[in-house]
Amino acid sequence: SFITDMFMLMMPLSYFTTYFILDGKNDFQSNELARWGVSLMFGIVNMIFWSKTGQTPGYKAYEIKIVDSKTMQNITLFQGMIRYIIFIISYSLLIGMVVPFLQKIDNHY
User: Which residues contact 107 (CB under 8 A, 6 or more apart)?
Assistant: First the structure.
């Protein structure tokens, strides 16, 4: 579902930012603020989907629904924000642990 959401939600946001707000891919790649802005907008869109329907398009495709464990209703925007912040932190930590294994080691002394 995450990959589906990336293609259906994140890619259009990235495309719009890259070609309508900035001057192309080189500007987007060198602009840290634009990349964080797209991630923030992706999070906001996810939070809205979670609070309104309990599903993003990817969740709907796989018949997954997010609900509050106590009320069994859709989560609130605040709960969605906490969920997205925790996702960003956990994803960052995972990438941070994997990157050293992907780098070429140079043993020149």
Answer: none
